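Quick start: what a row looks like.
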Amino acid sequence: MEFLAYAGNALTPLAMAIAVAGLVIGILLGALPGLSSTFSLAVMLPVSISMDPVTGLIFLGTVYMGSTYGGSFAAILINTPGTPQSITTTFDGFPMAKRGDGGLALSIACLSSVFGGLIGIIIFVWMAPPLARFALLFGPAEYFWLALFGLTIIASLSEGNLIKGLMSGFLGLGLSQIGISVVSGDARFTYESTALIGGIPIIPATIGLLCLPVAVDLIADAGHHLTAPLNARSTQFVAAIRAIWARKLNLVRSTIIGSVIGIIPAAGGAIASLVAYAEAARAAKPEDRFGDGDPGGVIASETANNATVGTGLIPTFVLGIPGTPPDAVILGAMLLHGVRIGPKLFTEHSDVVYTFLWGMTFATVLMLPIGLLAGRYIYFAVVKMPKTFLVPMVALMLVIGAFAIQNNYHDIVIMLALGVLAWSIGRFGFPAAPIVLGILLGPIAEQGYAQAMIIGKAKDNVLGIFFGRPISLILIACIVAAIALPPLLKRFSSNRYRIQSHAAE
């Protein structure tokens, strides 16, 4: 196979040094709250342009991979997603850290990221052309149903209080309507404020809703931030392997979900991790406690979001359609280097593409020791850090994270306002996570619905557009199953337990 012939090009000392440097830089940038993979790539783009095409692309690709994994550090240790892809990592990662298993959670995140990243790259190499054609099958209606499927995670996140979870989700959908309409271009609910014309930005919203309440609780709680176990200096590598092996079905399922969603333009790692987490929570055993520190939640999130890195490049390389903003930065870098995008890319620039993929492969493998060592020392540093230093540092990181993307102080105001909202409603049992999901998926659902309606009316077949396509029917079936199966399984388990109890008596 032609791909194998270019392995040596990526093993040169220069290429390996570039890969390690990109990986370390990506991990450090991704660990900072609010500094997304897009930001990391955009900042490093001028550096890559000064290199030759191969090393420049390897550098950007490894920064992308590292920043995606790096988001788990802040997500696990201070409940602050470093990147949008790490939102779901906070659900179980931070509770694990609070009970003293932060090192274990970081090791699980590292191993899951490596596995998902490798599989994503392998799928890219072997299945790029057919998967690119599959991505083209997704129309507006499919995007609408996909967004609704992602929103079903609300039920999983709100176990024990479904009504409040749904209310939070609808609040998020309402907030997503603020700003310019994605279809008509009309300004909605801005109240003549220029700060709201662009809508609610996802990064400041995520920081405010998920992170600010944690910062307030840090101040209010007189105890130490995290429990320091006896083996705090250990990577807990063996324990992490055992935890993942016990949940190997979750690992495989999340990899498949991330790989498939990765090839769909505009979906990306955030949606992949949401869907993977939702499916892992629904398939969990009764004794598993998703949302309360279950390792399966970290496995699902980190495996899925890293799997999208490789497969997300398929529509970018094959079709010239960037699936996500980070892919758009990589596409821009390729064009600046004079690399022509399209079906002939693998023949005219095979040396660049395959060397780049080998570099990504080796960098993913190197992420295992680098990530484990980074997790070990960073976890120990955070555990031992006094609150008098930790709280101001966290507060500063939150402000910088909200401001950095657009350099707009209005984003800081939005972050603070949503943080106060999340802290207030949290006192009454309303979760903040569904609000984030609603803001994230609302525009996708709205745009898909509006465009599908326009096409359906033009063809005089609205029902056929929404319900007459195979992919739509599959997604609808998944939505119905996701909503109906959990209560049925819960009732079945309850009845079985009652029968067993009577038999024992």
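That is the whole record. Strands lie at 179-180, 187-188. The chain has one domain: 2-504.
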